[in-house]
Design brief:
Blueprint lengths: L2 H9 L4 H12 L3 H5 L8 H15 L4 H5 L2 E3 L2 E3 L10 H17 L5 E5 L5 H9 L4 E6 L2 H14 L4 E4 L10 E6 L12 H6 L2 H4 L7 H9 L4 E10 L5 H11 L3 E7 L5 E8 L6
Parallel strand pairs: 3-4, 3-6, 4-5, 6-7
Antiparallel strand pairs: 1-2, 7-9, 8-9
This protein binds S-adenosylmethionine.
């Protein structure tokens, strides 16, 4: 079939922009380039792949899983049902953390990405600064298989550790960054998310704060004297996370940031750093 016919097929199921995103990803063309190839014939293999994707999306699968691809911070990450789909707001966590690392730490600082899932956070930080020593860890061996695929695809020299939070972590870091599971068990979750993404990646106990509390309680054993902790948080969790920080950590400075949509989504904890913002 020709590209223009496949676009017509896709538009019966998807929004026009989504059709171009899906077809473009499969054909390795950006949406604009597709317009210059409308008369090109697509191989049977790729045509079938596109049709299978359409079918999966029609049946409720998120586009990113159907494509096994998500663009995060300009990098292509492989994703499937073993991992959470990396979100836009997490790019902002990476952006801010990367700036703080550049400003306050040595080039070869040690970073731990706790609850790494697909590896989007830790691998992107390593991509942005190849001198960093980065360890990524997660409890799910399935998620770590995906993280390993991404490490290989992106050709990044990082260490991956299977661990229940700090349990198998045996060294000290300058920076801990984490987007842990933070949905409260009583929260109403979007059906597409609930039906497709790993529940282990979503739920953070009764109030959604379990992981923050566990991390804050244990972290100093795994951090150098001068440190940064960077958390992504749920949009209504700022005050509760700040209360936990103030309860357990002493002599620290905290900065919170909202995402581009104006929601409180990031908390940065600094120790022995003279921050100027
Ligand atoms: C919200 S997802 C974040 C994934 C990734 N960091 C991202 O931002 O896309 C949380 C991750 O925490 C992992 N996880 C859940 N319980 C854990 C535990 N006890 N120790 C370590 N990781 C855990 C899940 O497997 C999941 O990959």
């Amino acid at each position: 079939m020709k590209i223009k016919d496949l676009i017509d097929e896709g538009n019966k199921v998807l929004h026009k922009d989504q059709t171009k995103l899906v077809l473009g990803t499969i054909l390795n063309l950006n949406p604009l380039e597709l317009n210059f190839h409308l008369e090109d014939i697509v191989t049977a293999n790729l045509e079938n792949k596109f049709k299978r994707c359409l079918e999966n999306i029609k049946n409720g699968k998120p586009i990113q899983y159907a494509l096994n691809n998500v663009n995060f911070y300009g990098l292509d990450f492989y994703v499937d049902e073993r991992v959470l789909i990396p979100r836009f707001e997490t790019e902002e966590l990476v952006y801010n953390t990367s700036n703080y690392i550049r400003k306050y730490f040595d080039k070869n600082a040690k970073v731990l990405d706790l609850c790494c899932g697909s590896g989007s956070i830790g691998l992107t930080l390593k991509h942005l600064n190849n001198n960093l020593e980065v360890v990524l860890s997660d409890l799910s061996p399935y998620a770590l298989e995906v993280c390993d695929i991404n490490r290989n695809n992106l050709k990044l020299d990082v260490k991956i550790v299977e661990s229940d939070l700090f349990f198998n972590i045996d060294s000290k870091f300058d920076i801990i960054i984490s987007n842990p599971p933070y949905i409260a068990s009583s929260d109403i979750v979007d059906e597409v998310v609930k039906n497709n993404e790993p529940h282990m990646a979503l739920y953070g106990g009764e109030d959604g704060l379990e992981f923050y509390e566990r991390i804050i309680l244990q972290c100093e054993k795994y951090l150098n004297d001068k440190y940064l902790i960077a958390f992504e948080i749920g949009e209504s969790q700022k005050d509760k996370v700040l209360a936990l920080i103030n309860k357990y950590l002493k002599n620290i400075k905290v900065i919170t940031k909202s995402d581009m949509a104006g929601r409180d989504r990031m908390v940065f904890i600094f120790k022995n750093i003279d921050i100027s913002e």
